[in-house]
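Section handout, structural biology tutorial.
Before the tutorial, make sure you can parse a SMILES string by hand: atoms, branches in parentheses, ring closures as digits. In the record below the ligand is NAP, and the chain has 288 residues. In the tutorial you will relate the predicted structure tokens back to the input. Do not try to memorize them.
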Amino acid sequence: MILISGATGGIGGEVCRLLKAAGTPFRAMARKQEQVDAFARQGIDGVLGDFDRPETLAGAMQGCDTMFLITPPTPNQFAQETAAIDAAKRAGIGRIVKISASDGNVRSPVPWARTHALIDHHLRAAGIGWTILKPTAFMQNFLWFKDPIARGFLPQVTGTGSVSWIDTRDVARVAATVLMQDGHDSATYFLTGPETLDMKEAAKRLSAAVGHKVRYLDLPTPLFRALLRLTGNSRWMAKGLVVQFADVVAGHHDIDPTFEIERLTGQAPHSFADFVRDHRDSFARPGS
Ligand SMILES: NC(=O)c1ccc[n+]([C@@H]2O[C@H](COP(=O)([O-])OP(=O)(O)OC[C@H]3O[C@@H](n4cnc5c(N)ncnc54)[C@H](OP(=O)(O)O)[C@@H]3O)[C@@H](O)[C@H]2O)c1
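Predicted structure of the complex:
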């Protein structure tokens, strides 16, 4: 039995869909009863579990031998994931497949990159099986800017820096594959999309797919931070994103394409053009 955390989220939800389609037994963990009830209506075995209340985890993990571990980037992420890893060990879970980040580094100026590196260390030392998935930045991040894109502008602070953008559907496909297979113990996989794009090129691809001109707008960082706040990001998140984009990406520190997705799943990853086509309505001009 596989326990899927983050089952109501983008990646975890897609992992559930793939496991269900494959007929693989799993249990979807959620922190609210109404979410568990919604899983039951879809014929999915749901269970209550909250990383902020570690006392709920033993019950959620009971009878499971494998766990998919994902949490959102917040200041609580280290406490949440290390509590989950410790609870998994106590519950007899034999392997954890964890979503980390390609830029994970204990010396990173990006808070979640530092946190993921520390959690990865904790997991490797925990004495249970592990597989660590380290994706680059998600194509789905472009949806934060769907309104400016619909109006013809792609705001960023990355200069000429580029990213090997990955579609979260491919991250989920790798996760589902390694959850269902043996042979991935003690493995760390760096996951990327098929090509590296800077923002000028991304704007060009957006223009071609959505049918109106989209221009890359290289903003001063205070303005970009304000925009991130306006689009619903917390102060902590906005500050971290500015460092990530203005220092790490603009400084040309992202990784090159690795082609791990194709190797692990036998299927090529989604291209940026695929992503834009599949979210075309989100980027369309208002009223068009
Ligand atoms: N964005 C990127 O470019 C990028 C790149 C590389 C790696 N990553 C990593 O990818 C991960 C996924 O991030 P995301 O923002 O995309 O996730 P997400 O899809 O928003 O999913 C987060 C999930 O965690 C659940 N959750 C939140 N708090 C919880 C708690 N206390 N107990 C149990 N479950 C809880 C949420 O449930 P609710 O529905 O109840 O909120 C949701 O199902 C992060 O670790 C991030 O660092 C992101």
